[in-house]
From TrEMBL:
Catalytic reaction(s) noted: keto-D-tagaturonate = keto-D-fructuronate
Assigned keywords, A-Z: Isomerase, Metal-binding
Entry's family note: Belongs to the UxaE family.
InterPro entries: UxaE (IPR032586)
Protein task: Catalyzes the epimerization of D-tagaturonate (D-TagA) to D-fructuronate (D-FruA).
Protein name in UniProt: Tagaturonate/fructuronate epimerase
Essential cofactor(s): a divalent metal cation
Matching HAMAP family: UxaE (MF_02243)
Binding site for a divalent metal cation: 84, 236, 269
Keyword Transport annotated: no
Organism encoding this protein: Pirellulimonas nuda
Record carries keyword Metal-binding: yes
A Pfam family recorded for this sequence: UxaE
Active-site residues, Swiss-Prot/TrEMBL: 83, 194
Amino acid sequence: MSTPQPTPLGLAPSFGFGDRIGLATPGHIAAARRAGGGIAPMFAQQSIREMTRTNRTPPGVMEDAMNACRAAGWSQPHGADADHLKTPADVSVTAEAGFTFFTIDPSGIVDQQADDYSEARVRELFTEAAGAAPWVNGYRGKTVKLPTGSTIVFDEPALLKAAVKYGRAIEAAVSLATTIRQVQQAAGRDYEIELSVDETEQPTTLAEHYIVADQCLQSGMKLVSLAPRFIGELEKGVDYIGDVQALETSLRDHAAIAHVLGPYKLSLHSGSDKLSMYPALARATGGMFHVKTAGTSYLEALRVAAQEEPELFRELCVFSRTRYDADRATYHVHATLDAVPPPEHLKSDLELQECYLGRWETTPQGDGFTQAGRQILHCTFGSVLTDKRLGPALRACLVEHPAVYEEVLAVHFEKHLSALRAGM
């Protein structure tokens, strides 16, 4: 049976496997098969930012994923995520490569300080930017009762803050969605859109979620999933930090908005290793979710190096520490260099691996990895992979030990997928 090309997956539960090196798809396929189906995979997934940092291209990302699918005899539907798109040029190059799931990211023009402004400052900024939010009067005085029992009140402070925070971002998202529609229709290709509003310091309120999604849908955007900024902390490389029970209550409200307005899926970004919250996400959404991972496959590549070439892994840890303070700037992480001993203080190879990659252990929040060392390695992937010596050395290690890489990925992601299935 031939391997199908990527297609839109619609409202089916889905899971994005990021592959920053181009060698991880065999392990992703093995995990999907072991988990027993029920969650549609996206094997080709990479953001423009990640491609820039790793010197990869959209055609290259697609080719690596498709070659692995053909070699493994994958015959089930799968998607392809062109992640964190910001410009028409981003759309053009990813559409031409065959991506079908377009993640719009207007975070660069979201006013990140809006939650901290005084009422007077919000009103001042609203006056200056009112043209970007002509929709305000349409919500003024409105209330929405959700099926969960919660009520969204669109009062004056909430509306003005939403306009200041998201007005220009909504405009940009609608404009980019129009470009995606035009490009795909001209080529006769189907597509679907995800909107990312998760990269903010403060959680997305119910009113903000409702307004953003409603305005996008009214514009005709083919919205299949939306990624709010959830409560708690969703940091790279570690489990969810926060009250999972409170999160599930919040997720139900966000899922209710998605059902009332769409329906569309709720999307979890920074989804790697958030096992304690996966069942809650699946339950709250009734299985209408998308989870996006990326860096955790890179960390598992480093685990192969730690097992097969420990001296290379030690060198990678030393180098990553030199790059961490600069590379962490675009990530939400709490780890500091002081939180992890320098590699030279860890004489045992096993101790070094456990310190920087973590052991699978039970915590008060659930099973998962919690070590700060993972964040140091996670954030510095671009510096490692583009280093003239370390990048090729790591890739050579993976090429020499493909079965090991496939197995560690299969074990790792089976945990992710099984935790999600537990809530379905």
